[in-house]
Amino acid sequence: MKNQGSALPIENAIEKAIELLRKGEVVAIPTETVYGLAADALNSEAVARLFELKKRPKIDPVIVHCYGASHVFAFVRNLPEPARLLATTYWPGPLTLVLEKKDSIPDIVSAGLPFAGFRVPKHPLTLKLIEKLGRPLAAPSANRFGKISPTTAQAVFEEFNHLIPLILDGGPCPVGIESTVISFAHDPPLLLRYGAITKEEIEKRIGPLTVPAPNTAWNLAPGRFPKHYAPSVPVEIISSLSEIPYWKRKNAGLIFWGREETSGFKVVKNLSKEKSLIEAAANFFQMLRELDKSSIEKIYALLLPEEGLGKAINERIKKAAGSSSP
Ligand code: TXA
Ligand code: MG
Questions:
Q1: Which CATH number fits domain 2-206: 3.30.70.660, 3.90.870.10, 3.40.50.12780, 3.40.50.1970?
Q2: Does 99 contact ligand 1 (Cβ within 6 A)?
Q3: N or C terminus of the chain with fewer C-beta within 10 Å?
Q4: Cβ 116 under 6 angstroms from ligand 1
Q5: Using one digit for the tens of pLDDT, what is the confidence trace for 163-210?
Q6: pTM of the predicted model, to two decimals?
Q7: Using CA atoms, how far apart are residues 97 and 190, in angstroms rounded to an integer?
Q8: For ligand 1, is residue 106 a contact (CB within 6 Å)?
Q9: Ligand 1 mean position to 221 CA, how many Å?
Q10: How far apart are the CA of 138 and the centre of ligand 1, in A?
Q11: Separation of CA 95 and ligand 2 centre (Å)
Q12: Torsion of CA 223, 229, 234, 240, to 10 degrees
């Protein structure tokens, strides 16, 4: 059931979601980044159900979503000053901080690590839901493990159709790529996932971050799998369109940006004609998903400039292609 259209007015949908979450069920929620599959973070059984639905290995921890910084702090031991600064600067917003957790957060949430990921999502529906529920929500992206993250309620519906009782429809996710993940399990802090807030921006506030080398830090961030965000159609990164002869374009899709000549491809997705990184991020997963649904044999991808959000989008393109990185 979705609350789309006139199916269920939004207040009723929130009440329904609360009722389901209290019973230990899993519901889908909108955030500013991507849709999440949410369960009561303090209920281990409900979180276990979530892992099961996503087919996610139990070694990959999930993020705890709260309704405000003070709500997060109630579940954290030893808050480092730079973490407090980031929390008060960016929350609600697309930043996840990995912090030492109190015992009230069950071990399944953090995959047995003493540190859990926390964030305050910037979406009015979900903030209201968490505040009214009065409990944090464990929520990974609402896709099956390793697949494309959903940025619309429709995409969640296609993925989990009959498996979950409710999708809260909060419209398309405005940011479109996941939160940046910073771990304070180490000093200096580690950048575990490039995301919507750039490394440069964070370093301006708290000084240098360490970026673990590709394919390392599995013990610190078990989610750093080299293949991720993967469509079922194979993705190949190319460095220029001239590499692809016409005969190869006929049954292929292309994802790129700008105004290059792209004739011959069966399906073309332009992330942003004007080369806006913000627009490209917002379009990325949706366009990848649309390519995946087209009848093509291959998706060719041109990387974006390696700066700011471009870096975060490129990481996702590389993971879709199965090449590794943080
Ligand atoms: O924007 C987002 O962060 C979205 C929305 C729904 O909030 N959520 C999301 O969750 O992307 P997920 O589960 O798809 O990705 C969470 C990432 C994974 O790479 C995971 O390994 C890492 O965060 N992570 C979570 N808890 C962690 C922990 N305790 N230590 C290290 N890494 C952690
Ligand atoms: Mg995910």
A1: 3.90.870.10
A2: no
A3: N
A4: yes
A5: 999 999 999 999 999 999 999 998 999 999 999 999 999 999 999 999
A6: 0.92
A7: 10
A8: no
A9: 9
A10: 10
A11: 14
A12: -100
